[in-house]
Write a structure and sequence with these properties.
The protein is 60% helix and 5% strand. The chain contains 19 helices and seven strands. It has a three-stranded antiparallel sheet, with no helix packed on it. The chain has a two-stranded antiparallel ribbon with strand order 1-5. Strands 6-7 form a two-stranded antiparallel sheet. Helix 16 packs across helix 17. The radius of gyration is 25 Å and the shape is globular. The two termini are 30 Å apart.
Length: 604
């Protein structure tokens, strides 16, 4: 019962904080005054003056798109070169070498697309300069780009017989200065106060409380007798040749809190440390954990309410929110139940106590004991619902069905709230698809928010909805037949296939989380996953802006008795049905080969 209360509180706190944030974002993007305007508006105007931005410029959808692509392209090239050259650049106290070309391409693609897939160990691969100037900057601007494109679509619904969607540069400036920077400044300070490291010191070495023995293969030797003075390791009286005695531990340092804040609120994901928010210096205690976890979905949830306010139809925003919220609650429930119940193999025919009496119980493999199953399951549901990908537990160790739900949320196109901006415009594409199908069923021309939905919008909406399934399935299919791929797998069989499917689902959903059993740092994976990330980021952006441009040029249609309501429970049900239908039709065969096959194997 206590776990159920935890889940309810996590969801309630998220919504309570998101509603006022949604109202604030609406005011910012409408140019209205806020409680921070006196401080931030002069900064905004200074940017316009220095960058020669026309505040009242109205770009058509093609010019808006070109601005997005040029801006993102420059960021891609800059981050690629920054990684390659970090060995000769300053702020590199560990003396880390430049990153190889394929990993540089993968990482640049990852952070420019708001994915933050990391095929490397952050603290031992990238310098402070690369982390701060490269990754953190992209965390801000890639998030702002998604929100900007969303507002271009919103203007498409609200404007009548015009081609102007606002200015991309104005939208970016307002989002950065009024929303992302102040929000993340507060969160970063709170995280640093809670124990997350924030410094520019080199990594430190500390002495272990007790020495440990490691075999020649790097495995910890259990039940070993260690003689530090004689430098010998014995087990049952036998000296172990090649064993080493470890008495010190590497402790990474650096500006973590500032990067953790924006990685969460910008739904970027990834982590300063290789093990992400499971690391005690990146997420040390329950306070930092709940702060980081709520930050995962804070802006995506808030944007649903922003949408309703911006189109002057709050019920529409609530309807979209409810469709997303119901799917999130169902996903969270399935993950929580499966992780708490665990599997027969873990129970070992009753030899292992999985009850919750005086212990966490259930499947604790891969989870931090300081967080437990409830918080780990909630984080897993949140991070794969958002296009975030940060983790505080290892999804590779989840039960077959628990792991499958994390995959499925990404495979649906990251529209269960999804990334900042991109999740909502992806869901609005599904809403357009829903009203079109419903319109055909009743024999009426489909309408949505007072605009006719015609073949042009439908073609682009279908591409937006299918970009993720196409990228995931094509990428997974190619990877499954590449001879070198099995060498990257920790597991074989159904779970090994799940590791591949999860990787392409993560990159195809611009998520960034991973089944940790896959070694994806190879030329094939770095290049193929990088291309997948670019494809699923920019094809939906192209489609969304094309739809926005078309809608803005249309006249508004009066609502009549025959107009399909898009704010009632029936529409919410239809929207959920269409999202799940597309996901089921696209991914059921692949899921059957992976987690579903593993599940039935576990109960056989």
């Amino acid at each position: 019962m206590s776990s159920v209360i935890q889940y309810i509180l996590y969801l309630a706190v998220l919504v309570i904080l998101a509603i006022p944030l949604g109202a604030y974002i609406k005011k910012v993007m409408s140019g209205e005054k806020t409680f921070l305007s006196r401080i931030l508006t002069p900064c905004e105007n200074a940017v316009y003056k220095v960058m020669r931005i026309k505040k009242d410029e109205q770009m058509n959808w093609k010019k808006y798109l070109i601005s997005v692509l040029i801006f993102s392209g420059i960021g891609l090239v800059f981050l690629f070169l920054l990684q390659m050259l970090q060995g000769v650049l300053p702020f590199n106290p560990q003396g880390l070498a430049g990153v190889k070309w394929d990993l540089s391409f993968n990482t640049a693609s990852s952070f420019v697309t708001n994915t933050n897939w990391q095929a490397y160990t952050g603290e031992s691969t990238l310098s402070y300069l690369t982390q701060a100037l490269g990754l953190t900057v992209q965390n801000f601007v890639s998030a702002a780009t998604g929100i900007a494109v969303l507002f271009a679509l919103i203007r498409g619904f609200t404007k009548v017989k015009t081609d102007g969607l606002g200015s991309f540069w104005v939208d970016m400036t307002r989002i950065m200065i009024h929303v992302l920077i102040p929000l993340n400044l507060v969160i970063a300070i709170a995280l640093a106060g809670g124990g997350v490291i924030q410094n520019l010191k080199p990594a430190e070495t500390v002495s272990l409380v007790e020495p440990i023995a490691v075999s020649a293969d790097g495995e910890i030797i259990e039940n070993a007798d260690i003689d530090v003075d004689a430098n010998t390791v014995t087990v049952d009286g036998q000296i172990i040749d090649g064993a080493q005695i470890v008495t010190e531990q590497f402790v990474p340092m650096g500006p973590a809190a500032s990067q953790v804040a924006i990685k969460q609120t910008g739904t970027n994901g990834g982590g300063y440390m290789g093990v992400n928010s499971a690391h005690p210096l990146e997420n040390p205690n329950p306070f930092t954990n709940i702060l980081e976890m709520i930050s995962l979905l804070l802006i995506p949830v808030a944007l649903c309410f922003t949408f309703g306010m911006s189109i002057k139809n709050k019920k529409q925003g609530v309807a979209i929110f409810m469709a997303m919220f119901i799917m999130l609650a169902i996903a969270l429930s399935i993950i929580a139940v499966n992780e708490q119940a665990a599997t027969p193999q873990l129970a070992q025919n009753g030899a292992v106590d999985l009850s919750m009496v005086d212990q966490a119980g259930g499947n604790m493999e891969g989870k931090e004991t300081r967080f437990g199953i409830a918080t780990s399951s909630t984080w897993a549901a949140y991070t794969t619902a958002a296009s975030n990908g940060s983790v505080n537990s290892m999804h590779d160790s989840y039960t077959p069905l628990g792991g499958m739900i994390t995959m499925l949320q990404m495979q649906l196109g990251e529209v269960i709230f999804g990334g900042v901006g991109c999740g909502l415009y992806g869901m609005l594409a599904f809403a357009i698809l829903t009203v079109f199908i419903a319109g055909l069923m009743v024999g009426r021309t489909p309408e949505f928010l007072g605009k006719k939905i015609e073949p042009y919008e439908m073609k682009w909406a279908v591409l937006v909805c299918l970009a993720t399934p196409i990228a995931i399935l094509v990428g997974t299919g190619i990877a499954a037949i590449v001879p070198s791929v099995p060498d990257s797998l920790t597991n074989t069989g159904a779970h090994g296939f799940s590791e591949i499917l999860y990787a392409y689902s993560s990159c195809g959903g611009n998520n960034g989380s991973a089944f940790a059993g896959l070694n994806a740092n190879t030329v094939f994976f770095n290049v193929s996953l990088g291309l997948v990330m670019l494809f699923v980021r920019f094809l939906p952006i192209i489609g969304t802006l094309a739809i926005a441009g078309s809608l803005a040029g249309k006249k508004r249609i009066a609502t009549t008795a025959g107009t399909l309501s898009t704010t009632n429970a029936l529409f919410v049900f239809l929207l959920i049905f269409i999202v799940l239908l597309v996901g089921a039709l696209s991914f059921f065969p692949a899921l059957s080969l992976g987690p579903i096959a593993e599940f039935f194997g576990s109960i056989a």
